[in-house]
Design a protein that fits this description.
Elements lengths: L1 H16 L3 H14 L16 H11 L2 E8 L5 H17 L1 H6 L2 E7 L7 H6 L5 E8 L2 E6 L10 H16 L2
Parallel strand pairs: 1-2
Antiparallel strand pairs: 1-3, 3-4
Length: 171
């Protein structure tokens, strides 16, 4: 738990350094509020790489994943990378799931698109990456705060995000 708090504070400092003051101010509170810490340890496990098995399990249980990047009109390099790397991760490692609609990516400017149903429902307060999991068990909305730590290293970011998504898919 100490390490998690250190990483959150480090991420908040990183966000301040790169001009993302609202991200830095809200990072610890948002992470605690969304409960995303429970999923952060999944990043080290790697990716199974068997996309067709993942797609079959999605079709069988009806689970849908929506990766959502919320941001404002002004974005720093890290904010831009957060979305760019998320989209490229899905295109590289989850092509079948994107094609069948069981996984999708949304890039939403919460500052200008205030009528967006996701903005209204989840009321984002800072640039962030969230994973919405919908299925028979209901809905889970979690912030993937750890993604910020890899916003400067696409290979590590892809590994982290692929691992998280594969874990939600049961892979």
């Amino acid at each position: 738990m100490r390490k998690l708090h250190f990483l959150l504070l480090l991420g908040a400092g990183f966000a301040l350094l790169f001009g993302c003051a609202s991200q830095a101010a809200d990072a610890p509170a948002q992470t605690a509020a969304t409960g995303s810490a429970a999923y952060m340890s999944s990043a080290a496990s790697g990716v199974s790489g068997n996309s067709s098995i993942q797609a079959q399990s999605l079709q069988a249980n009806g689970t849908r994943l929506t990766l959502i990047k919320f941001h404002g009109s002004a974005q720093c390099v890290s904010c831009t990378n957060l979305g760019k790397f998320a989209n490229s991760t899905l295109e590289k490692n989850f092509q079948e799931e994107l094609a069948d609609g069981s996984v999708k990516y949304l890039d939403i400017n919460a500052e200008t698109d205030t009528a967006n149903p996701y903005v209204k429902k989840y009321q984002p307060t800072h640039a962030s990456l969230y994973l919405l999991t919908e299925g028979a068990g209901g809905e889970k909305f979690e912030e993937l705060a750890e993604a910020w730590y890899y916003a400067g290293d696409e290979a590590k970011y892809v590994q982290y995000l692929s691992s998280v998504i594969a874990g939600r898919l049961g892979g």
